[in-house]
Amino acid sequence: MKINSFIIQSINDMLSLDTIKLALITGIPLLFVWLGLGWLFWDPVTSFTAHIISWVPFSIIRANGAFIITFFIWFVAVLVSYALFIGLFSGFLLGGKKEKRFEAINFTLIFFFSVFWAAAIMYRWDFIDYEIRRFLTLLPFDTVSQGLAWLLAAYLFYNCFLISEYLVIFTFREAFIRALMEKHLGDTELTKTDISNVRTYGRLYWDIVWFFIASLLILPILFIPIANFLAVWFIWAWLYKESAFLGVCSLLCTNEEMQSFREHKGYFLLASLVSALLNFIPIISIFTPFFVMDLYFHWIIEEKFINHEEVTSQEEPSLPEQEKQDVQEYQEEKEEQ
Length: 337
What we know:
The protein has helices at 3-14, 17-53, 58-94, 99-123, 125-138, 141-171, 173-185, 197-217, 227-252, 255-261, 265-277, 288-315, 319-336. It is mostly helical. It has one domain (3-309). Helix 3 packs across helix 6 and helix 9 crosses helix 11 (265-277). It is globular and about 65 Å long. Residues 311-337 are annotated as: Disordered. Keywords: Membrane, Transmembrane, Transmembrane helix. This is Etoposide-induced protein 2.4 (EI24). The chain crosses the membrane at residues 20-42, 66-95, 107-128, 148-172, 204-227, 233-254, 266-292.
């Protein structure tokens, strides 16, 4: 299993200007749509999340409230650091760079600030956690619960934004897959597939419904440290695991080939888990649908085209080898005579 090489190839594909344009064209309009919907439905959603919080004891809210607030601080710190750096130093560091170099620097900056602020928070975790807990203890329960209700509401709207982007990209995925085919396989055409759209989109809609149900069910778990991260990570990975594979396979594989690919359950799990991690990183999260489809694309073409050609070349000797065998057989027959 070449998951590491597939990840590197997918990252390189994400750095292309075409992919970045697609992500921005889909992500920015949807972001404004969900900001508008959040403004319209903020009160009922925060009332719902406040009702959920009322089921949880205050001691747990105070303990995990510090964890949620710390995560929010990290999220904002990454965004602000990236924005300030680009605003102050982009002309000096990025001027005159080639297109792909410019995109690579942007991704590297986001990743660097994400790791830097995570390491800084972990280094001073005891101090930060103590101060936030002490601050929450001084505040009335209603104030704390209302603040956490706002954060949970923001989390729900963020999920809706990512789901809607995944749905749009999935619907128009053929152009993205064709671009990958042209980049990596030249003039190779998409395979005529017998996988129906009803099956493909039926799986997508079922996984989205399951995701929303699971998101509501895990709301109380979001107040348990570590378990909240694992729960969110799992439901995102579960969403991508089957639907993204079927979406890519419906353009590249026959039904028989798809069934054979399903036997590689380890790759399904790894690809979905790695892709779901991107949803926790600001800005980069809008590239998650492209990334997971890219991972499946490289795996499928490796199994379908490259490995198949290697097996064929081993089973059928090349022309020079065949000629050598013919000459050898002719000489043996001549010696026998």
